[in-house]
Structure formats: C-alpha cells, structure tokens
Design goal:
The protein is α+β, with helices and mostly antiparallel strands and 357 residues long. It has 3 domains: 199 residues, Nucleotidyltransferase, domain 5; 58 residues, SH3 type barrels (Roll); 61 residues, OB fold (Dihydrolipoamide Acetyltransferase, E2P) (Beta Barrel), CATH 2.40.50.40. 30% of the residues lie in helices and 24% in strands. It is built from 9 helices and 15 strands. The radius of gyration is 27 Å and the shape is elongated. It starts with a strand and ends in a 12-residue tail after the last helix. Its main location: nucleus. It comes from Oryzias latipes. This is Integrase catalytic domain-containing protein.
Length: 357
C-alpha cells in the first residue's frame, strides 16, 4: 500500500536500455527493477506502475518519490488523485526522505557491478536475477526476506527444494501469511525504535516554525554567483516562512532570482534570533524612481557575458544578499562608471578591439 520510486541513470546501453526504474514496497522491502530505454514521462511512469505493480499487488495508498519532472507534473498529480493515492515528494536537498529507494539503488548497483564486471553492457540480462536475489535475502529490519513478508513463504531457489517448502492447503497458507505479517510488523517496529535510538543520540530537536517567522537558509546546496565559494556566507536570508508542510518540511518565500524549490528540510534552516550584540537586519532599500521607472542602487558589477548581439552584466545590489544577484542587459545600467570599473578589474572578460569572444 506504500511504495517508493526512483531511477538509476547513466548506465551503458544494454539491449536498448540505459535506465532502471526502482519500485520498493516500504513494508516488506520487496523491489521491482524495470529496465527502460530512457527516463519516462509522467504518463509512461503511470503506465509502468499499472503493468508492474497494480496488476500484481494493488492500488497504493501513498507513493514517495523525489522531485523529478515526472513526479511534479500535473499529469502525475492527477493520476495519483484518480487512484486515491497521496503524493509524497522529498524535501529539497534531503534524499533521506526517499531513503528506501535510494538504498535499493545502492544494492542494485553493487550487484550489477559484480555480475557484469567483464561485460558492463550485459546488465539487462542479469536484472531479473538481481531482483529475485534481493527479494530472497533476509532483511535486517524485519528479520525476514521480502518474499516471506509479501507472499507468506520463502520460494524455492531450485526445483529440488519444492517438496520441503510447498504449501499443503489454502488454510495453512493463510495462517502462514498472517503469522509472517505479524512477525514482520513487530520486527519493523523494533527496527524503527532501534534506528531512532541510534539517530537521536546525535540529533537535536528541530525548532518549531510558524508562518511569518524569519529563518536563515543554508547555502550548502544553493548555487551562488560568487568569486570564492569558501568565503561565501554559510547561510542566506533571512527569509519568511510561508507554510509549515509538516514538522520536517517548511516552505519559504524566496526571491525570484533563486531557481530552487521553496520547500526545505528543517535541517537546512535555523531561526533568526535577536541579540543585543547583533543589530537587527534592516529591510532592503526600496526602489527609487528615475525617469518614471524604478531603479536600484548597485554596489558593483561582478561579471559580463555575451547574450545574442549584446552583453549582460552580473549585478551586486546595495542592501541585498548574494542570492539576489542577477544578470541584466546593458540598457538597464544607468551609471557608465560601473562598466568602466568592471573593465579595469576584469579586462579578460571584455573582447579585445577588433576581435570577438
């Protein structure tokens, strides 16, 4: 009823396939590996689930995935809504949200690396056997194999074993399934408690955020337009909290220049605290009217690049952080001394007379 999806890409061409769709049952840890010629669209992904999951098991209640274009599209959301499944997308820069699929991918890559060492392009020939082996191995979380959790018994590895593991009657099979289900459920609870104890030993409780609150955002995974990454600020902002999605995910009000999803895990945030030693941050200066149009003060120009027949300049605004830096065309710059200063500091960025870049 609860599944997780992910893709393995960058594989060598094997029988026309370069991609693998990983489907994980989050309860039994059973997997399905589906070889694909390329990354599918949202419609193709929905059809793959119908063929490889729904017809064999059931319609899921929840589907966990990353924020790939297949899973953020309106087609995918409408498909999940029509079958009664909720869409659970991982928060920004926090792959642990879809940890079970990520772990299944690691196991898959390790197995394929072993069996295809001599001929990597033959990985699609071994994919079914890797899936069978994964579902036959005992999982440390449940103490049972995925086959035992989902089927109620361990299928034979060789025909000679069928006599000793065959199911003699329907009633016996049902009782065995119920017993395995209870064992798996208790084992999962124990594994969850054990994992929580280990993780909580080095983890602190996250602050409780509320809409309207100001927070700092870690710049670790944000692409900044700066000369030195080492000397860049560790945190950006402050930004306003728009909504609290759940205790682990928060939606922020980001500037338009930041081309990232506004939902972040709380591990990437920290609240803005007032202090008598540190003056409160001032709001950015408003625009001035120059010739009837809004204009902003510029600290300096950082770089130049050619776009079409003209040039664009990277602007560092007065009173705004690094996340607000933006490329603007030459016509937007009212003070020519800014361009002369950039030419003096970065002569290598400008075309030589009579030449082209």
């Amino acid at each position: 009823s609860h599944i997780a999806l992910d893709f393995v890409t960058g594989l060598p061409l094997s029988r026309g396939n370069t991609t693998i769709l990983t489907i994980v049952d989050r309860f039994s840890k059973a997997v399905h590996y589906v070889a694909l010629p390329k990354l599918p669209s949202a419609t193709d992904t929905a059809n793959l689930l119908v063929h490889h999951v729904f017809r064999l098991h059931r319609l899921p209640a929840d589907i966990v995935s990353d924020r790939g274009p297949q899973f953020t599209s309106q087609v995918w959301k409408a498909f999940c809504r029509s079958i009664g499944a909720t869409v659970s997308l991982s928060s920004g820069f926090h792959p642990q949200t879809n940890g079970q699929a990520e772990r299944a991918n690691q196991d898959l890559e390790t197995a394929l690396r072993c069996v295809t060492e001599a001929n990597p392009s033959s990985w699609s020939d071994y994919l079914d056997w890797v899936e069978y082996a994964h579902n036959s191995l005992t999982c440390s979380a449940t103490g049972l194999s995925p086959f035992e959790c989902s089927l109620g018994f361990q299928p034979p590895l060789f025909p000679a074993q069928e006599e000793e593991v065959s199911v003699p009657s329907v009633q016996l099979h049902i009782r065995r399934c119920r017993r395995v289900w209870r064992l798996a459920h208790r084992a999962l609870l124990r594994a969850r408690e054990r994992s929580c104890r280990v993780a909580d030993a080095r983890r602190s409780s996250a602050p409780c955020y509320s809409p309207g609150q100001k927070v700092w955002l870690s710049s670790k995974n944000i692409q900044l337009r700066t000369d030195s990454r080492k000397l860049s600020p560790r945190y950006l902002g402050p930004f306003e909290v728009l909504a609290v999605i759940n205790p682990s995910a928060v939606k922020l009000r980001l500037p338009a220049s930041m081309k990232v999803h506004p939902v972040f895990h709380v591990s990437h945030l920290k609240p803005v605290c007032s202090s008598a030693l540190v003056p409160p941050s001032k709001p950015p200066p408003p625009a001035r009217l120059v010739g009837g149009r809004p204009a902003y003060s510029v600290r300096r120009l950082l770089d130049v690049r050619r776009r079409g027949r003209g040039f664009q300049y990277l602007v560092d605004w007065v009173g705004y952080g690094r996340e607000e830096r933006a490329w603007v065309p030459r016509s937007f710059i009212l003070d020519d001394s800014l361009i002369r200063d950039l030419r003096r500091r970065r002569p290598d960025r400008f075309p030589s007379p009579g030449g082209s870049r």
